[in-house]
Amino acid sequence: MNTDIFKIYPDSIDSEAIRSAASVIKAGGLVAFPTETVYGLGADATDKNAAKKIYAAKGRPSDNPLIIHVASPEDARIYAEVSELYERLAKAFMPGPLTVIMPKKLIVPDEVTGGLDSVAVRCPSHPIARALISAAGVAIAAPSANISGSPSPTCAEHVIKDMQGRIETIIDGGECEIGLESTIVKIIGEKLVMLRPGAITADALRCVCDEVEIASAVTESLGENERPLSPGMKYRHYAPSSPLVLLDGTREAVASFLSAAQASENCAILCYSEEKALLKNENIIDIGSESDLKAQAQRLFGALRKADTFGCDIIYAHLPVQEGLGLALYNRLIRAAAHTVRKVNS
Ligand code: AMP
Ligand code: MG
To answer: Ligand 1 centre and the CA of 247: distance in Å?
Structure first.
């Protein structure tokens, strides 16, 4: 298949290009587009055949449901049974990087929800995403625009590498600002269960809802016979092809471990900016200052992809803290590393 690639600038949107991409969605085709979190691979959320094409293009298991993207928070009621708690979340965090799981309405086909009776809804803030959904006139079902299992794409080059030839259109709208997928919460009565951490933190959610529970699968691996709350939790994710090992220890112990590793192993390192001066300038990727979690989030997936191009035997990265945005970094890295943590305290 020939893939059209459009460059669109978020601050001066080419409405002709948006109309053309929207017509692909309306005709049942696939369009990859930028959001503030990561790039999405979009199709008409009410068209079961279009949804099937998403699973085929990604190689995604069909029981792993898709998030549907709406142009405005009020549009959620077309697709889901919204509650008063949803209205509060919408007022506080939408448009933005929050996905809310609610009971679904019939208009959403089973192919989109993996047969579940609930649907995940998000209203992105990225101007290109919003323009595309509005022009399509329907919600857009969109998982991340990567081949299933590989790191989510945070710029058009990543999407082109994974999806060129597999989908009709790619919109190149530059780099994603946040770089990690949305926070996902499920509404259960008056309670929220966080299924995936993201830029909307648990503390931020607690300003709107008294009871916020963090699902154990966010930080732990699932037990053998445990049924996940979200089908996506059971799949290996975000992983580079070389094995990734996370280092847990004091700043000094980790730094000396890394210098020793550079001397004895063919390794790639995701390091903090402050460590660059201490390491050999070989197969290292600066993921931002130790205290700048936002920069680390924005760079993480690109860094995992880049680390793979070095052809090293092993990739080392720091084990993130589990607070605030750190919880989202922890969740992505621990899964990319298949829970491999090495303690290096001396
Ligand atoms: P992605 O599409 O790659 O951003 O991943 C979406 C995540 O949302 C996956 O982990 C899905 O399992 C999860 N998800 C989507 N819809 C539902 C739902 N109705 N119930 C539980 N989890 C969901
Ligand atoms: Mg994904």
So the answer is: 29
- At the topology level, CATH places domain 4-218 in DHBP synthase (3.90.870)
Q: What is the pTM of this model?
A: 0.96
Q: What is the pLDDT of residues 243-301, one digit of tens each?
A: 999 999 999 999 999 999 999 999 999 999 999 999 999 999 999 999 999 999 999 99
Nearby residues of 93 by Cβ (< 8 Å), 6 or more positions away: 200, 204, 208
Ligand 1 atom with least separation from CA of 38: 4
> What is the C-alpha separation between 324 and 326, in angstroms, rounded?
5
pLDDT digits (tens, 9 = 90+) for 37-84: 999 999 999 999 999 999 999 998 888 999 999 999 999 999 999 999
For residue 181 and ligand 1, the question of a CB distance below 6 A is answered with yes
**Host H or E run for residue 270:** strand 267-271
Ion ligand 2: residues, Cβ under 5 Å: 144
Domain with CATH 3.40.50.11030 in the chain: 244-343
Peptide bond into 240 cis (omega under 30): no
CB 257 within 8 A of CB 168: no
Q: Whose CA is nearest to atom 7 of ligand 1?
A: 232
Q: Is the distance from the beta carbon of residue 116 to the nearest atom of ligand 1 less than 6 Å?
A: yes
Closest residue by CA, ligand 1 atom 4: 143
Q: Please report the atom of ligand 1 found closest to the CA of residue 67.
A: 15
For domain 244-343, give the CATH number. 3.40.50.11030
